[in-house]
Amino acid sequence: MAKNKLDLLLKLETDKEENLRINYVQAQQNFVSNQQKLQGLNDFRLEYSQQLHNRAKQGMSCESIKQYNSFINKIEEAINQQATTVRTAKQVEEQRRKLWLAQQAKTKAIAKLIEKKAIEKQVKENKAEQKVLDEFATNIFMRRIAS
């Protein structure tokens, strides 16, 4: 009965570990996705700044320059917001990784306990079997001596 309880516990903990692994993988994907968005914003800002530089060489009105700079400032605000999102996503990823690893250790400990119990049971059974064989051999030996 105890073995069944341990097996059930192992199944529950294994399921929990799998769910935590899935959560961790999703957090990794979210982090990578947010990093890519941040890189895209940085690339866009650079491209837009280069456009401003190239057009300014050809001559632009002050109003156009102000509009370009205003838009670049908005891009930089978006970059700052996205950088915050990336940092948060990294923290979530790390937290979920730690939870998954802790659960993995717990699951391995239960599996190890089950293995230890199985070995103890096998040793006990082997000793009992050896005892029966020893008694049988002793009985045969005693009969031979008595005859």
Automatic annotation (TrEMBL):
Pfam families, alphabetically? Answer: FliJ (PF02050)
- Which top-rank group of organisms is this from? Bacteria
Keywords, alphabetical: Bacterial flagellum biogenesis, Bacterial flagellum protein export, Cell membrane, Cell projection, Chemotaxis, Cilium, Flagellum, Membrane, Protein transport, Transport
Q: How does it sit in the membrane?
A: Peripheral membrane protein
GO (cellular component) term, any one = bacterial-type flagellum
Where is it localised? Cell membrane
Instruction: Extract the GO molecular function terms from the UniProt entry.
Output: cytoskeletal motor activity
What does the record list as GO biological process? bacterial-type flagellum organization; bacterial-type flagellum-dependent cell motility; chemotaxis; protein transport
Coarsely, its chief localization is membrane
InterPro entries reported for this sequence = Flag_assembly_chemotaxis_eff (IPR053716), Flag_FliJ_proteobac (IPR018006), Flagell_FliJ (IPR012823), FliJ (IPR052570)
The record ties this protein, via PANTHER family, to: FLAGELLAR FLIJ PROTEIN
Task: Tell me the protein family, please.
Answer: Belongs to the FliJ family.
Under which name does UniProt file this protein? Flagellar FliJ protein
